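Inputs:
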Amino acid sequence: MLARIPPQTLRILALLFVLLAVLLFFSTQVPNYLNGRLFNRISSSVAIMALIACGQTLVILTRNIDLSIGSVVGFVAFATGSLITNNPDIPPILLATYSILLGACFGVINGVFVAYAGVPSIIVTLGTMALFRSALVEYSDAKSITTNNLPTWLIEFPNTQLFSIGTLQFRAAFVVAILVVIAVHFALTRLRPARKLYAVGSNPEAAEMAGINSKLVIFFAFISAGALAGLAGFMFLARFGTITVVAGLGFELKSVASAVVGGVNIFGGSGSVIGALIGAILIDLIDTSLVRWQLVSEFWREAVLGSLILLSVAADAVLMRRLVKWRVSREKKETKPEVQS
Amino acid sequence: MKNFIKITAAAALSLGTASATLAGGHSVSLTPGEDINMVLLPKFLGILVFDQANEGAQEAHAELGNTGELLFVGPTPENSTAGQIEIMTTSATQGQGAVMLSNNAGDQIVPSAVAAQAAGTRVVTWDSPIPSGEGEDVFVAQVDFGSIGTVMADMAHSILGGSGQMAVLSATPDAANQNAWIAAMEVALKGEKYSNIELVDIVYGDDQAEVSYNRALALVDKHPNLGVIMSPTTVGIQAAAKAMQDEGMCGEVGVSGLGLPSEMVSYTMNGCAPEFALWDFRDLGYLTYYTAYGLASGQMKGEIGETFSAGRMGDFTIEEDPGRPGSSRILMGDFTVYNSENVEAASK
Amino acid sequence: MPQPVLRMNSISKHFGMTKALSNMSITLEASEVHAIVGENGAGKSTIIKIMTGIHQPTSGKIEVDGKTRKITGPQAAREAGIAAIYQEPMVFPDLDVAENIFISDNSTGVLVHPAEQRKRARALIERIGIKLDPSRIASGLTLAEQQAVEIARALSQDVRVLIMDEPTASLSAHEAEQLRKIAQNLAGQGVAVVYISHRLEEIFEISDRVTVIRDGRHISTKPIAKVTSDGMITEMVGRDFGKYFAKTASTAQDEVILEVRNLTLDGVFEDISFDLHRGEVLCMAGLVGARRTDVALAIFGVIPPTSGSIKFKGQTTKFTNPRTAIEAGIAYVSEDRRKLGLAMPMAIKSNVSMATLDSFLSPLGLLKREKEGKVARHFIDSLNIRTPDVETPVGMLSGGNQQKVMLAKWLNLNPDLFIFDEPTRGIDIGAKAEVHDLIRSIAAKGGAALLISSDLPEVLAMGDRILVMREGHQMSIVKHSEATQETVMMHATGQRQEAI
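Outputs:
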């Protein structure tokens, strides 16, 4: 039966297994650990990173990287806050659309340089990371967006409880993030233009030979990442209320970590946004749990977090390899007679 | 102003530190109208308090009629350390009269600051000093670090009603300011008055909203009986207040620490953060400018014991920094505690 | 007579000063298997690249179905119904077979229906006549299966002209057999198949017509029935090389410096055995895929062989890395100067001293810059390297001079055995002759040279003996006196095999 499951699904099963192992481990270490509260914490916290990691995944699939994504989140959060502060009557949908479009605009800048000017993405986005951040500093004029200037609907939105299962609350931000991830996942698996992200990342030369417009595909990846970062900026504003120029600092690396932990191949061509989502959850879970773990002091936490991430990536890789090996041996057994004929 | 609870740290809490004026020293009164170019270098750009400090410095600049230029330059947030070192070096090559630095580069700034001094540029730190004191002429301290500890302990005492559990949400584990303040608070907590207050945990939110927010929640999960989250950082305090508000826990856990009135007003009014404290960054910028102007124009020597007059703020004396033996500081000292009575006015 | 599917009309292609193709005309008819043969570097791959739009011709035009058409890129080629498959297939390793076939097929709309897609893939694969599960991930496929995927992709796009470039070079005999069937099968369905291969027997087996090219020029196009293998080889090698490469007397001595016995690397080459004497130049000839370089790398310690023995200077050795081989006195001058040989941005003198850096260090471990410069100047003079000074970055020099810098680097080591791997590829005729002189002088001084070359005239001019390889097997060792282009080519293409 397992032999019928595609490798992507296997990868996610392996990840879920690791996630479960981490949960069980900490439940033996931390009192009052496994309860609805933990779910609520992680789900609210991961909602923003899920969107960013999702965007980062689209870019990584094409063998690129977007290091400017944290700066985009920060800028969009600030600009959106500024817009709604000055025009409190803007309807929610319009405001969210503004955030997404603004994010996409930043994506266009990255995309033009990477796809059409042919500059390596790590250089382009390292530059735009600083550039967008400077733009935010300039734009903010050292003012902060503060909660008291924001409309109530916006502040209440992320924590609005849509429904609950027992003590597990499903809050709006989390549900939106999950819906977006599912939508992107559907697109990546079923939409032809989105499948080309995999083709370009898997073998750029072959993509060119197969007549795929790689430049357009890469351009599209950066715009989508920008748009998702824009939506994340909107959520960031709604969740934290107070936005300063440091908003979103460091998100670029966290998103790359989430994607990679989630099984997205850093060299492009394979991975899924569901995986990236689970990767984000795993990192957030380990991070939060470590704070509550008495055994680890603050000064060692970063190191332990890094080690645990490495460990879970390794565990995932080993599990994955086992499964693939097993499958291959199965396949061989099934096809052997034909080869010999 | 009369509603403000003003505590003059040096007067109320001088714990064996040098007193404000040394006997026999006469106060230098600075001659205006010199031509000195100066640089105000914040940790990074885009933060309100630094802009306020700039306003204060600009005020002093105009007051002293300096015909030179006062530049407000800083790195962007993601490039703070390297950017500060670069600006320090550039300022020295440009032959700036003085660099006023809110140090975010730890001792990494030392070589460039020493080089600047050698090139004739005076280095005055404010808000955050150079830990080793090397390459620094004098540090203009906003408040006595010891007094911050007492103020924080007092706020916790008031919120807890005298007894309960407290946890600290700080910036980064290696932030010199915060560590000194927390250490001072731990000393203060040993006092009889605070014997029923238990400091149960110290966590770090990296001065980032999302990390601080999550840390605050982790604290309440970890310590079910927690009564106060004390956050000596403007980012941490508001993230913690927002987290308590979002989770409907403001009745159980009070948030306090160092915050900006404009960011904290709603949390103070709704009871999530009943009390917090801060000093005036405009005044800090103003005093720093006077100090730097005096040193760069040669009217002050920067020696311990020297007293000078800083315009509207009155007389100040250079003394040895009790936290950093061998280094000198000027203590500004005024400190404001905000609560529901005064915060709205201050947030405007 | 029916309209030809594709006609290349006096196409020329120049790369700077190099004329890759001159006045090349080829006509492809529907339903034919059209073989194109020629030596390495004759211009076959340039023809393919022009047909598939990767290169644009310098002059001449291409007609498809009688109409002139500019093929501006792979996309345009596909639209014109031209597709190519290569020895190394172009598949997407992360995607499954069905998706590999239909990735750029937009005919079924934006939504992908995996089940439907697999069904269509299965139909195409059946048309090719093989068995392959369309849901398998491409990274797990054999080369032959990957090629089948590529062919299926071409078929899905209504291919009119299918170019197969050395498609069987890396396949097992059984797989190659299957692929040839596919080629004929497709021709039977109306496709014009261009078949490029070094294996002459293949060409006789499947092609309808054969075009011979040489030095970028069209030599002949004939129906296969009118071609003999000797005639074809003569046409392929037919240039008059004797004028500029004359063989000089052998300087071989009696002492055997390198003794290789039954050297085998599983799946790559097997049972390679030869002796190399002091003062001798032994050439290794063969076609693409003959695995000569792999043998050389095994001797040099880069890829340890699976079995067999190597005796160097009378001692049985097993080099596990190049450093120990170099220390023992072996130098390896590689074909790819950029990748293996030289540090392009660094000065000539630094490149020369690189392999022997220890000898340039003062007792304190500091680099003796003067000595470095002196040594470099010595080689600039003796090898006639054309450069303004020793500080010039190697990347600024011409290919021939780069090659000489690389030789200088190794000469400085005074090795006993030189392995030359295509030392004259891509350099001009004058520099070539200088390199040849140098190899001879090494031999005359008692050094031994193992020279890998795909340039037949060079092999015949330089080799005291010629070891011919084909697909990992040692076909024969031919003495210089018995060697002609034809005999070497016969062995290299598998037309004749001799017991050693």
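Remarks. The two ends of chain A are 27 Å apart (CA to CA). Residues 51 and 223 of chain A are 14 Å apart (CA to CA).
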